[in-house]
Amino acid sequence: MAHFKYIGRSKSGERVEGVVDSNDRSGAVRMIEALGHIPVSITETTKTHKQTEATSGKRFKFELGFQRKAKMKLQDLLLFSRELSDLVASGMTIGRALHTLAARKDETATGRIVETLRDEIVQGTSLSDALEMYPETFSSLYINLVRAGEASGNLPGALENICIHYERVHEARGKVIGALVYPAIVMLVGAGAVIFLMAVIVPKFATTFDEMGAELPTPTIVMMALSSFIVRYGLVLAGIILAAIIFIQKSVKHGKGQQIWHKIQLKIPIIGNIITANAYAHFSRTFGTLLRNGVSVLPALGIVQKTIDNVIISTEIGKARDRVTDGASISKPLAQGKIFPRLLIDMLAVGEETGDMAGALSHITRRYDAELDRMVKTCTTVLEPLLLVLVAFIVGAIAVSLLLPVLTLTDNLHI
C-alpha cells in the first residue's frame, strides 16, 4: 500500500494537508473526499501521517527552539471521552464518530487532536495506536483500556469504563482541591492584612510616637523594628522568598527532593490522611478498572504505578510488582512494604481467595472514597477556625503593640 500526501480545501475553504494510505491515486482521492476535503494536489510519498507530523514537529522545534504538542485539559478529555462513548454506543463506527466530532471545526487543542485521530483511523490505524501520538493527553491507563476493548470486541464498554473512571478521578481531585481553597484564601487575606498593617499603618504610628517623645514598651519597639525592616527591604525580601519558592518547586519535582517532599506530605496531620485516602482510592479504582477490562495483574500494576502522584506510594507499588511471583497474588507483596494499610491488604486477600479481585477492589474504592469525604470534611471543619484564630492573633498582637504606648501616655496624664 502506498502513501499519498495531499493538499486540499475543506468545505469552508480552508487549506488542509495530510497523508493517506491507498493502493492507487483514485483510492486516495476517495479517502480524501471521505474526510470532507476537496483534493487540490496529490503526490506519492514514502512517509506516513505520523512520520510527516514528527518531521514537521522537528522542523518547528529546530526553527523556534521549542515545540508544544496539543494537549487536552482533564475537563476536555472527560467531555471528549463521554461524547465518543455515546456515539460509539449508538452504533457508529469509531471512524464515523470521530468524523462527527471533527466536523465541528474546533480550533482548540481538542479539535486538532480529534482531527488527527480521525485521519489516522481512516487510514487503518487502530484507535489505541492513534492515541499513542498524544501521550501528554492520553495516559497509559487510557490507551491500555482502549486496547483491551479492541481486543475483546467491546470498545463501547471500554470507553464507558474510561468515562466512569475519569469522572470519579475528577470528582476526587475536586474534593481535595475544594478542601484547600478556603484555607488558602484565609491565608492570603491574612498575609495581605498583616503586610498592609506593617508597611502602612505602623510607620504612621512610629512617626507620631517619635514626635511625642513617648517611651515605648518592648513589644512596640520590636513591632517598629519589624515594620522598618519590611519598609526598607520588603522588595528584596519578596525577591528572596520568590526565588526560594521557585528553587523548592524545582527541587521537589524529581529525584531525592521529590522523595523527601512526598514523605513529608504523608506525615502532615489531616493533609497526609487526605493524600493517602485519595491515593488508596485511586489505586483500587484504577487497578480494578484494568482487571475488569482484561488486563493481567503485572501489566496492570505497572500502569497503576505511573498514575499515582505520590512517589513514595508509587515506588512501593513498583516494589510489590517486582515481588509478585505467581502472577496473581499481590496482597502479600503489598503487605511487605508496610505502606498500604492492613484493611486494604485484608480486603484484597479476601478477593484473591474468592477469585473476585475486581469486586474486592470495588469495595476498597468505596471504602476509601468514603474515607476521603470524611477527611475533607474534617479538614475544612478544623482548619478554617484554626486559620481564623491564627490571623486574628497576629492582627491582634499588632494592634495591642500599637495601643500600649497610647495607654501608657494616658495613665501618665492622669497622674
Features:
mainly alpha, Receptor-associated Protein, 3 domains, three-stranded antiparallel β-sheet, 16 helices
Q: Overview of this structure, please?
A:
The chain is mainly α and 415 residues long. The chain has 3 domains: 63 residues, no CATH class; 94 residues, Up-down Bundle (Receptor-associated Protein); 217 residues, Receptor-associated Protein (Up-down Bundle), CATH 1.20.81.30. Helix content is 75%, strand content 6%. It is built from 16 helices and 3 strands. Strands 2-1-3 form a 3-stranded antiparallel sheet. A hairpin with a 4-residue loop joins strand 1 and strand 2. It is extended and about 100 Å long. The chain starts with a strand and ends with a helix.
Distance between the amino and carboxyl termini = 107 Å
Radius of gyration: 30 Å
N to C succession of SSEs: EEHEHHHHHHHHHHHHHHH
Major beta sheet summary: 3 strands, antiparallel
Which geometry do the CA atoms define? extended
Q: Which regions have little confidence, pLDDT < 50, spanning 5+ residues?
A: 47-67
CATH class label of the largest domain: Mainly Alpha
How is this fold's topology laid out?
Elements: E1 2-10, E2 15-22, H1 25-34, E3 37-45, H2 49-64, H3 74-89, H4 94-102, H5 109-122, H6 127-131, H7 140-152, H8 155-212, H9 218-251, H10 255-267, H11 271-292, H12 297-307, H13 311-323, H14 331-336, H15 342-354, H16 357-414
Helix pairs in contact: 3-4, 3-8, 4-5, 7-8, 8-9, 8-11, 8-16, 9-16, 10-11, 11-12, 11-16, 12-13, 15-16
